[in-house]
Amino acid sequence: MSNARPLSSLTLSELRQRTSEKWRHYPSDVVPLWVAEMDVPLAEPIQRALHDAIAIGDLGYPMDDAYLVAFAAFAARRWNWDGIDSAHSIPVANVMTGVAAAIAVLTDPGDTVVVNCPVYPPFYSYSERSGRVVSEAPLGADGRLDFEELEAAFERARAKSVRPAYLLCNPHNPTGTLHRTDELTRVLELADRYGLRVISDEIHAPLVLRGDFTPLLRLAGAERAVAVLSASKAFNLAGAPAAVLVAGRNGADVIQALGQRVVPGPSQLGVIAQSAALTDGDDWLDILLEDLCARQELLIHLLAEQLPDARYLPGDATYLAWLDLRSLNLESPVDSPRGDMAGESGPAAYFLEHARVALSGGAAFGSGGVGHARLNFATTESILRGALEQMGRAVGNRH
Ligand SMILES: Cc1ncc(COP(=O)(O)O)c(C=O)c1O
Fold first, then answer.
1. In this structure, which residue's CA is closest to atom 12 in ligand 1?
2. Alpha-carbon distance 19 to 242, whole Å?
3. Which domain holds residue 324?
4. Is residue 326 a part of any domain in this protein?
5. What is the mean pLDDT of each run of 10 residues along the chain (399 residues)?
């Protein structure tokens, strides 16, 4: 097993030994291109740190500061951002724990949380299960923020709530949209005008294929915003989770309110693995990003060859592709409800049954998701090629 090119290192039979959700949710003849896990070995510095910890039995309570220090150095080095410090930050168990905690302290039950559909399904389920009302501001046809929609949603939220919030996905899952600095500045101006607090989920931030990531809190106007970050997507550490919730400079109320609550923190294994990734993982990450660009190119080529009627606007970030499959007119069993991460509906259900390829069903991502599916291209060339060929055959063999 070579660690030199992470995305070309593993074979299908090695991957099938994994017990994670990606590999065990479906029967073993299904090629899983759904949940956001990557088909890579762990970066060598992470492997070493975990081995060393186990060798010396280092599984006591974590020193949270170690994670903050590692994240602060990573953010300064890669994004020119020095906003992560212990006065403004709290380590949390994972990103959605941080998002849920931010929603809990910044809004009240019955208040509106604005999201940009299509969006990561738990944005709905976490908000709604805590008694908040989700209001959708759809992305434009180009996959970018639509400021008319956003302003209308902010206005509605303001009218209906005492303490509304906006849950931004930066970069955006599932479209891979990398929000530009000017767009984020406009978001902050609008949120300020209508009195919404902004919560920015930045879990995909290190996964930028082209251009630069802008941390929301680096911008003027973000003093009362909150961001939640983690190394778990970029280094494939969802099973060794850790995350950090960072408040802007005038977000002392958030840190204070969180201090009054029980917010689960990261595990020691998460802190060890992610700190090693953030401190010593740059070289591995840079190679991964090159490979993800190549894989995205391959996907574009394979779609043209196998599914010429599929529409795909390649995003500049993440390893997720949002496929518009409406013109394939695939027979669609009942669509799963929005917010249901495991629901495969419409084209995803078709491809699962007829191609034995698992995608994420589009309806779960909110309004506009019907007829779409999300494909995870963080896999080897041969797995991606094989999956698209099976999908092409399934569509060609339809009649
Ligand atoms: C936008 C976004 N937020 C949060 C998560 C989940 O993060 P965690 O497992 O740290 O809660 C994901 C996982 O794919 C995601 O895409």
1. 203
2. 20
3. 6-42+282-396
4. yes
5. 79 96 96 98 98 97 92 98 92 97 97 98 97 98 98 98 98 98 98 98 98 98 97 98 96 90 92 98 98 98 97 98 94 62 76 96 94 97 98 85
